[in-house]
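@channel sequence for tomorrow's demo:
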Amino acid sequence: MKNGMIRVAIGVLMAGAMAASAEEKLGVVNGQEVVKQYHKTQAATDALRKLDDELRDAQKRMVAKLQEMDEICKKAIAETNDKALSEEARARKRATAEDKLAELKEYEMQVRKSDLDNRRKMEEQNTLMLKPIILEVRQAVADTAKDMSLTLVLDGSETGLGAVLFAADRLDITDAVLKRLNKNVPVPVKPAAEESAPAKPVAP
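structure tokens (generated this afternoon):
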């Protein structure tokens, strides 16, 4: 009798679990594609590219100055061996060469430190700009899932094997999330010259 009651209870629990599972609605989103196509991502990418160009240009100028200092230092060292000069003159040249060499080494350290600082600055800016974008994308996914009465959304991005190995197309909500994110995309403002330019006459 007890065994029979246990079997009945187990059957009821399994039926309840299957019914609950049937009511679940799943969705799949391509997280990488959403982040890539979000209009704020392009703005952040442009800003990062501009900063990177500025830092690279500054670094190139420092490297160019370092090369100039290296040539001056080599010339100063060569002059210390000029036999046409007196011993006293060569001594002054050696002192000058030593000073130039010390300046060169000090500036070389500055160039290396600048390069490391620039790399760190780019990483920090990338994180700073990407973090709010990721948060907004996650919120958009959550809001879209609620609108579509989904109980679970999986990321189907192609990173390694990905979080999803197979999903029917009808489960993909990527377009819906992008539509939500980009509904307020800023409209490019036309230059005043273009707006006030007279219309071209139509050829007969």
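heads up for whoever presents: Residues 27-184 form one domain.
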